[in-house]
Design a protein that fits this description.
Strand content: under 5%
Mean pLDDT: 86
Number of helices: 8
Helix content: over 70%
Distance between the termini: 30 Å
Low-confidence stretches: 151-156
Number of strands: 0
Shape: globular
Largest sheet: none
Order of helices and strands: HHHHHHHH
Radius of gyration: 15 Å
Length: 156
């Protein structure tokens, strides 16, 4: 399983938790039914899902502060959980390059929601990035070098 596939599974588990209030282990197990995976895949997915759930209030606070006229509760479940996963990675997974976390989030939103969702996620993460960079003590130049993936049809 690639990292991208593991993120897809993590997103599906977060969606399951959001929908049914399942526990992390139950949601991860449900998502992995009928899939090939290694122990390392399960560990990575579980770390992502558990991390989002453990930092949920903090993540939702960052998102709420970056979305004009919106709150995490008012957006679609897919978009909400894509954003939560991306913000968790940006804040708490420093070994993942910021650009990778953003690009993965846009890809997931476009695949599991709509093209417009990809643009929405892209825009929210562009607003969140400077705040997270300050908290992570990332130099301003490094943040300005992060290229947020252009969505199909947009000029780069």
């Amino acid at each position: 399983m690639t990292r991208h596939e593991a993120r897809e599974c993590a997103l599906q588990a977060l969606y399951q938790i959001d929908l049914s209030d399942s526990g992390v282990i139950d949601a991860v197990s449900f998502v992995l039914e009928d899939k090939s995976y290694t122990d390392a895949d399960v560990d990575y997915m579980t770390r992502l899902v558990r991390g989002v759930m453990e930092h949920l209030d903090e993540i939702d606070g960052v998102l709420a502060g970056s979305m004009d006229r919106w709150s995490p509760e008012r957006i679609g479940r897919v978009e909400r959980n894509v954003l939560r996963l991306a913000v968790f990675e940006l804040m708490h997974e420093p070994e993942i390059p910021m650009a990778s976390a953003i690009n993965e989030a846009v890809r997931l939103a476009k695949r599991y929601a709509t093209e417009q969702s990809g643009k929405f996620v892209n825009g929210v993460l562009a607003k969140v990035l400077p705040t997270i960079a300050r908290e992570r003590d990332v130099p301003v130049q490094e943040v300005s070098d992060v290229e947020v993936e252009p969505v199909d049809g947009e000029p780069s």
